[in-house]
Prior knowledge:
Order of helices and strands: HHEEEHEHEEHHEHEEHEEHEE
Distance between the termini: 79 Å
Number of strands: 13
CATH topology of the largest domain: Beta-Lactamase
Number of helices: 9
Radius of gyration: 36 Å
Amino acid sequence: xxxxxxxxxxxxxxxxxxxxxxxxxxxxxxxxxxxxxxxxxxxxxxxxxxxxxxxxxxxxxxxxxxxxxxxxxxxxxxxxxxxxxxxxxxxxxxxxxxxxxxxxxxxxxxxxxxxxxxxxxxxxxxxxxxxxxxxxxxxxxxxxxxxxxxxxxxxxxxxxxxxxxxxxxxxxxxxxxxxxxxxxxxxxxxxxxxxxxxxxxxxxxxxxxxxxxxxxxxxxxxxxxxxxxxxxxxxxxxxxxxxxxxxxxxxxxxxxxxxxxxxxxxxxxxxxxxxxxxxxxxxxxxxxxxxxxxxxxxxxxxxxxxxxxxxxxxxxxxxxxxxxxxxxxxxxxxxxxxxxxxxxxxxxxxxxxxxxxxxxxxxxxxxxxxxxxxxxxxxxxxxxxxxxxxxxxxxxx
Length: 397
């Protein structure tokens, strides 16, 4: 007498049902691949893998097991169907007598379709507790050491097939590659953090060394007894301090290749509060523009000299007034930085290129170093110096 085959609830034949399951498995592998490439957060990726793998095999249970070498155990790191108190708590043995341990140790997939009659391995207590009848285990292997095991379990009668183990291994391979990628990213972040820490330490030491030089010049200026020489040493001390401050501001920026120049100059100008207390410095940066970090310190020193000159000569004898530092883009390939005051102005025949003052000579030399054009514009009230230099980086809104 032939056995009676119960019709599928959907009316499909067993072959059609199997075909539909295989198609769904391929869709799931594609979905897992996308999740892995998108950089899905680690815990979410484990949960998605467990849920989708169980769905693809029409199983009630699935779990991701992480190998803990010190304990020689496999911890349930993620899973579906297990309820509370299992994920992150329960574990199984990682020895060869355990199905999951055998898969981990040998790299070979394990199918146990009749756990109640299994003689090759001992049935883990966790599976006994949940009445699991059949299980499959495959290794989660990346480029480095194995992460653990991907296991699917079912209470239902039936058998997992070679097609099922191929699907399970495919899911495990995708998850393994994603795990390895995240390991590399974690190592890279650790190396970058260390690099940043060393960079900050070096910057701190350079700043301290420059400040020490500035302090020595300042002390020498007080002790020299010659008013002219005292003035020169004081100016030298201020310039070394300006280099130290500019370097310190640059060191705290996260981008080692370029810097947002408006924000940088705004921070640099905060350091003038004590030096030019009789003036109010206002920084106007209408657009976010970026420059290579190699240009930042020369630019900061130019602004420092121009602001100091505006305070010293534009507002003599401490009369005081506003000083504007502006950052603009006259066109897509240029950056303009200007320093403007409303003071007494400069002589009509003043020419920055022929000025004998050390400050203007420094400004002219640094402008030439940057490949920039320095312009001086007499105003009805006050003076404006502008520096126009080429810029390669795009504006960010």
